[in-house]
Structures are given as C-alpha cells and as structure tokens.
Design a protein that fits this description.
The chain has 22 helices and six strands. It is an alpha+beta fold. Helix 10 packs antiparallel against helix 19.
C-alpha cells in the first residue's frame, strides 16, 4: 500500500475517505491474487466466475458478496443508523397501532355487549372473524390490539388468531398498491392465501381448547366492563404489549441496519425453495407493513428474486414480527403461539411453492411508488411515544410501591377473579380504599390480585370485592 492509496489522517482527510481508500487498496490487491475457490450465496465457484456472472468489480469475498456497505461505515455510525431506523419503523408503526386500538375501542363501545361472544365463537366464528379482517387496513402491530380487544370482549381464541393471521397480510389499501406494482393475478392469489391461512390457523387454535376452557374464558370476558369508555379501552389493549412492541421495533431496526440490501440481491441465484426459506428468515422478525413492503418486494423481483420468495416475504412479513410473537405468547400461551407460527411458516412457504409451480403469471416488479411519512404519522408517533413514557413511569411507580410496602399481620393479599382491564383495576382499587380501616391498596392485573394494608378483616375485604362485582379465587 503506497502513500497515494492510503495516507495518515489530517484535517482535510476524513474517516470516510480513509475507508474508501482502504477498500480500493484491498480490491487492487485482490486483482493480483490468482483465482481461488470460495463459497458465496450457497454455491461454490471460482471467484472469477462469480464476478463475471454478477458483473461486479473483483474483490475479497466479504466485499463482493454485498457487504461493502458495512465495511464503508465509520465506527459509531451503527448506533446512529439503528436509532434512525428505530424512528423510521416507529413512524410506520404508530398510526396503525393507534388505528387498531381505536378500532378495538369502537367495537367495544358500539357493538352489543355479547356480540363478540355470540358471533365469534366456534368454526363459524373463525370464518366470520377472518372475513371481517381481510379487508381491514391494519398492519401487523395495528392488528394486535384489535385481536386482543375481540378476545377481551368474548371472542374465542380461534377467532382472534384467525383474525390476527389474515388481517395484516392484506387490506383494501394494500390490494390496490399490490395490483399497481405486481399485477392483479399476484395480488388476488395473495389475498386468497391470507384468507386460507387465517381459516387454517383459527380452526387449529379452536381445536386446542375444550368446551370447559371456552366456558372459563366466557365468564372472564363477560365480567363487568360497562364503564369502560373508548379511550380507556384503547389504552387497555395496548398496555399489556407495550414492552414487546418496543423490543420488536428495536430488533427490527437493528436487523435492517446490519443486513444491507446488497446481501439480499444475491438470492436471485438460489433455488426457489431456498430463496423462499431465506425470505422467511428475514421476514419473520421484521416489522413490515403490508402496504410499505410492496415496493421492497417489487425492487427485489426487479433484481431477479423469485416470485415465490417475494410472496413469502409479503405474507410472512406483515403477518408476524418479534412484537407480535411476544404479544401472542403473553395473551394466548405457548400452544397457540406454536399454531400461529406454524400456520404462517408452512402456509407462506407452501402457498408460494404452489404459485411458482402452477400459476403461470409472473409479478410485474415495477417501481413507481414511495412510502413517505405524512404529518399524521409524525403526530401518531409522538402520541404513542408519550403513551409509552406514561406506561414506563406508571410501571416504575407500581414496582416501587410493591418494594416499599411493609409485609406483616396488617397486609392482606386477595386473589381476585374477573379483572380483565385497567378500568377493572381502578374500580376495585377505589372500592377498597373507601373501606374503613384501609390505609393503602395496590391492585394488579398480572397477577390478578389486590394487596391491602390496614386494620381490617380479610372477610370484610372479600365482601367488598364481591359487592364490586368480582369473585375470589
């Protein structure tokens, strides 16, 4: 390496220029090395053959394979890139998450109290929930509060899971965008695939539970909620999952930064089945909006990605991500999570293989659309950030109260049944505080219990709980 290729830093010589000079030097040295065999994109071939096939400038494998963008970044820019990606994902997520919570709130206050229980139970309820969800314009994180709201109002787990699988994959907005980018045959097949996957996942979830389980959930869902308003219900369906949402956004942003687009472009050389599995591995953890993911898929198809792999990306990406996986685990349990993931994984790969094998239409892959961030996206992001900050301080306050609360003969812990939302918590908390002899009260949803301190008998406290409309475990 001579002084022209790389020279020490000075005031006019930036780190970026030094990085580019170093990469240029590495490429020049690589041109002088005799061709050797190495592995790239799941295939082993001579470096000269790989270079000619992809029309790339020769260089070391880690440069030629599409990771040049990583090598060119300055130290410390990864953190800035992740923070920027977090904000971009947050801007995409916030409007749809609030829209989903608003939809859950409207359904709760407008529909009759037992509507979800009567209409969304059994296999027929699964079909109705899926049919309701397919045209709704909700993304993967926006559908979480809506599905949990249906479950809270009395819908079966099968109906809620079917709604959760089918809704984010398509909608009236994404259908029109997909048709303009990828053509109507591809778009219609994707919409039908969302319908089929929702029915299969919902029916499989419904088969997991016995009638006794359904009765237990029904009694819990019909606990007193008459005073729950629109905004209170919005908060109630977001609060249990806010930590998973934050974790999912950060993980999605980190993956976006650390996996450059050049690495995905090499999938055009893979077998369609392997390309589909690779697309599945990328799509599962990421937050991908059904509408915003269409230009990405169109760009990949234009670069040579198999149509089936793009279909996997468009089905599995919006249907699930790290935040959704955590929310499903917390709300439905491990067995339902296994059914949910199995339906998304095997359904997307199987249907994509069916499309590649039997459907003669290729996706268009035209690029004419940009997914920007209008003012309402910024407003939604700020509102959601403020709501999450409130959750953080409220959880810290509750943890501090639990830690500083003295334990002795004057502390009574009541195991309560029927607490289904934060409004229930506030209602019971107010009733217990108004009881003579009570000095402090702390009511929690998870675990469902009330911790009461004061000179009052346990039997009197249990009577207050029952008079408020709840039961003792």
């Amino acid at each position: 390496m001579n002084e022209d290729e790389f020279r020490p830093f000075d005031n006019d010589y930036t780190i970026q220029q030094a990085s580019e000079a170093l990469i240029t030097s590495l490429e020049a040295r690589a041109e002088q090395v005799p061709p050797r065999t190495w592995s790239c994109s799941w295939r082993t071939r001579r470096r000269s053959e790989f270079t000619r096939a992809h029309q790339r400038k020769p260089g070391p494998p880690w440069v030629t394979c599409g990771f040049r963008g990583i090598a060119q970044r300055r130290p410390g820019t990864h953190i800035v890139g992740v923070l920027d990606a977090v904000w971009q994902v947050w801007l995409q997520l916030a409007p749809w998450l609030l829209l989903g919570a608003a939809a859950a709130g409207l359904l709760h206050v407008l529909l009759p109290r037992d509507f979800a229980r009567r209409q969304f139970r059994g296999l027929g309820g699964v079909a109705k929930a899926v049919a309701l969800g397919v045209p709704l314009p909700l993304c993967s994180c926006g559908v979480i509060p809506a599905a949990l709201g249906l479950k809270k109002d009395g819908a079966s787990d099968g109906a809620a899971v079917g709604f959760l699988i089918s809704t984010p994959q398509t909608g009236v907005d994404s259908v029109l965008v997909s048709a303009s980018f990828l053509g109507w045959p591809f778009t219609i097949f994707k919409a039908l695939s969302a319908l089929v996957m929702g029915l299969v996942g919902g029916a499989a979830t419904e088969a997991l539970h016995s009638d006794a389980d359904g009765v237990a959930r029904l009694e819990e869902a019909t606990a007193p909620q008459s005073t729950v308003g629109f905004f209170e219900h919005m908060v109630d369906v977001i609060r249990p999952i806010w930590k998973w949402i934050v974790f999912g956004v950060v993980a999605s942003a980190a993956i976006t930064v650390w996996i450059p687009p050049g690495a995905i472009a090499g999938w055009s050389e893979l077998h369609p089945a392997l390309a589909g599995l690779a697309a599945l591995g990328i799509a599962l953890p990421l937050y991908v909006c059904a509408t915003a993911s269409v230009p990405i898929a169109a760009a990949l198809i234009a670069q040579g990605l198999p149509t089936g792999a793009a279909l996997v990306f468009l089905m599995a990406g919006p249907a699930t991500n790290i935040a959704t996986i955590g929310a499903v685990k917390r709300a439905f349990g491990g067995r339902v999570l296994a059914v949910y993931l199995g339906t998304v994984v095997f359904g997307s790969v199987g249907l994509a293989y069916l499309y590649d094998t039997f459907i003669p239409f290729e996706a268009l892959g035209t690029l004419t659309h940009e997914h920007g961030h209008p003012w309402w996206a910024w407003a939604s992001a700020l509102v959601l950030a403020g709501l999450f900050i409130f959750f953080v301080f409220d959880d810290l306050r509750s943890a501090w109260l639990r830690r500083t609360s003295p334990v002795g003969h004057d502390v009574v812990i009541l195991e309560v049944e029927g607490l289904t939302c934060n409004n229930c918590v506030r209602k019971l908390d107010r009733a217990l505080r108004e009881t003579d002899g009570v000095t402090s009260v702390m009511v929690t949803l998870d675990p469902s219990q009330a911790t009461v301190e004061g000179s009052v008998r346990s039997a009197d406290l249990e009577a207050v709980v029952r008079a408020t409309g709840y039961a003792m475990k």
